[in-house]
Amino acid sequence: MRGPVLMSVLFLCLCVGMVSKTVAQPEGLAATIRLQSGAIQGSGTEVRSFKGIPYAAPPVGERRWRAPLPPEPWTGVRVADRVGSQCPQPARGPVALTSSEDCLTLNVWSPAKTAADRLPVMVWIHGGGFTVGSGGWPQYDGTQLARRGVIVVTLNYRLGALGYLPHPALSQESEHQISGNYGLLDQIAALRWVQSNIANFGGDPSRVTVFGQSGGAYSVCLLMVSPLARGLFQGAIVESLPLLFGPKFRLNDSYYGQRSAGAEGQALAPDIKLLRTLTMNDLLARLPAPVTLTPGFRFHPIIDGYAVPDDPADLFMAGLQMAVPLLIGWDAAEGLFFAGDAPTTVGGYERFVRAKFPGDAADRILARYPVVTDEQARPTLARVFGIYELITPTVLTARAAAARAPVYAYRFSRVAPLTKARWGGAAHGAELPYVFGNGLADRTQFEELDQRLSNVIAGAWVQFAKAGNPNVVGVPEWPRYGAPDFRRLEIDDSVTAVESGTDSDIEFFRQLFDSMKNRKAPPALLRH
């Protein structure tokens, strides 16, 4: 049952220093930009794009499972007119992109005629459960956003085992005695690249907003609590935050094969030197297959005491995250996106809940969200999964952050023809076409109303990047989020400000998270 979910996820989901100014080019050609690593030339007229720019050296061979290094320099002018390879992942994306470990590249879109003042910068971190995705996927094309007067950057970062494998042997060779979180370190390296280079594209390194959806939203929250990312951005947008609250894995947990028991109960210690010599495909064949909806194995960021100093939920609750303006929200029917793999029987529903939650928590969920008939199994699980995995973490994070910095919250509930036909509601990722403004001209999937809503949403996102406040003239006032009424924007066929108040489902899962906080992670074996 993994295939449908992975294909659905596919739908969605340091060079330093400026060494010279832009070199003028004949009209109609993108300017040549000189970076420390070499010169690049992009394409475009009204909006210029520079694609496939290396922000770090290829993490291959001996660099596999190490922190990213600065990009290797090149001679001549590098033509930057196509996106780079996507990082290795178990399924292909919505376009025929090559998968390669040489994937640490980014893309920049810039209005051709920039104002005298530097433009704000929006850095997109894609989702995909830390397993799939690419900043080069066409739905993340930054052209339409850049037309609104911002510089847009999208990036790749290492995924799966190549991005998030912790192991004692890897920690031992690290100067910080840590391992894992390589994909997060890639994101930080890309943000450092932006600080050093974006002025050459017309951007203002002192006005950087990071924004992401799903796994990208989780990444944004990790960046907000990481000491390594301090000062690298000044605003954050979080769309559909997955499970920030609840059990977390720490570097010393028995996980990912660190202390996995063999037949005699002895530790299995993979030969890291050998694993570094394997081809990408041979390596991935030795590792457990990832899952999405179903309980089981997945690679993702952990608490390593370095890039992620402690439980990010605890840090948010204590007000220890970066005090930057935050725009945050969720989709009304998040769980519908994952319903294709949901069980279709009463027994299957109960087995899923008991596999995912410890005994007492499972009992409480089954009592609160009972299933009597087989027809109820899939929609009920989709609802439970969406509230537990995505909506509750988003709401609790918004409430915690509002105590320290301005927060603006939304719920997206518009059901376009596309979302109605595919999921039946505003599922996970439904707002993405409206943010980037791509694909809305297809009248078989979207209506004229959707283009108007996109103008509102994209305009608010850009205004937030410019001023730390999403309010624009001609749109209902977007109130600041906070106690006691927790007012947010409801984005449906119309846009209105509403009071969200106390939600019994949110309170139920908040208490559940607290009770599960010390749950141990399951062991998972590396295959030899």
As residue ranges, the low-confidence spans are 1-28, 256-269, 520-528
Give the rounded overall mean pLDDT: 86
- Strands in their spatial order, largest beta sheet: 3-5-7-6-8-9-10-11-12-13
For the terminal residues, how far apart are their CA atoms?
A: 25 Å
What is the beta-strand fraction? 5-15%
Summarize the biggest pleated sheet.
10 strands, mixed
- Structural class comes to alpha/beta
Number of strands: 13
Q: Mind telling me the CATH class of the largest domain?
A: Alpha Beta
CATH homologous superfamily assignment of the largest domain: Alpha/Beta hydrolase fold, catalytic domain
Radius of gyration: 22 Å
| CATH topology grouping of the largest domain | Rossmann fold
| CATH structural architecture of the largest domain | 3-Layer(aba) Sandwich
Number of domains: 2
Please provide the ordered H/E string of secondary-structure elements: HEEEEEEHEHHHEHEHHHEHHHEHHHEEH
Shape: globular
Helix fraction by DSSP (H/I, runs of at least 4): 25-40%
The tally of helices reads: 16
Features:
31% helix, three-stranded mixed sheet, disordered C terminus, alpha/beta, 16 helices, Rossmann fold, 2 domains, 528 residues, single chain
